[in-house]
Write a structure and sequence with these properties.
Elements: H1 2-7, H2 15-25, H3 32-35, H4 41-55, E1 64-66, E2 69-71, H5 83-106, H6 116-121, H7 168-175
Antiparallel strand pairs: 1-2
Protein name: UDP-glucose:glycoprotein glucosyltransferase
GO molecular function: UDP-glucose:glycoprotein glucosyltransferase activity; unfolded protein binding
InterPro entries: UDP-g_GGtrans (IPR009448), UGGT_TRXL_3 (IPR040692)
Length: about 180
């Protein structure tokens, strides 16, 4: 991706340009239309990005979002052109956001016992939480992995009814060896 972005000099970055350069790096049996077509994940993501930018009330894509606020780059040299420029822009923007929190502490609107994330989410310029699971502040739940595993033969059709007699943590310890995405 970085080679593709650096190869753009005087040309505009569009779908045809991406297809032309993607052919250089794709395997011989790769179908570019499956990768970049109307029904592809790329196009779906592109549509979501366009919808997001239109909700911002502009047609210019922000390169970076800080706390949901776009970091607009109006300088001659884009902030994403080098790590140093990006770091400087991020530190400057974060200093502005930190100042808001400091003012809230000074005014007594935010204290040690308050959750800073909840305070920020209640601000009028912040969109409310849409997905409760992403930023939920409910207590974390843990799986108890301290159980004693029984034989994994209990997962056969004729013996599966014996799992009911195991405690929750013993049943989990019994199932762990055959689960693909969990490890102890």
């Amino acid at each position: 991706v970085t080679e593709l972005l650096h190869s753009v000099k005087d040309e505009t970055l569009n779908l045809e340009y991406v297809k032309k350069h993607l052919k250089k790096y794709a395997s011989a049996d790769a179908n570019l239309d499956d990768i970049i077509s109307e029904d592809s994940e790329y196009n779906f993501g592109n549509q979501l990005a366009e919808e997001f930018v239109s909700k911002l009330g502009t047609n210019k894509y922000p390169q970076v979002l800080i706390n949901g606020v776009p970091l607009w780059d109006d300088s001659a040299t884009p902030v994403t052109s080098s790590v140093e420029l990006l770091e400087e822009a991020l530190v400057t923007a974060l200093a502005r956001h930190t100042g808001r929190l400091q003012r809230a502490v000074f005014r007594g609107e935010l204290s040690d016992s308050d959750d800073a994330l909840d305070f920020l989410m209640k601000q009028p310029h912040i969109m409310p939480r849409l997905n409760r699971r992403v930023l939920a502040s409910e207590p974390t739940q843990y799986l108890d992995l301290s159980g004693v595993p029984s034989s994994t033969e209990l997962f056969t059709e004729d013996k599966v009814h014996r799992l009911i007699h195991l405690t929750g943590r013993d049943a989990l310890a019994t199932a762990l060896p055959i689960l693909q995405y969990f490890t102890k």
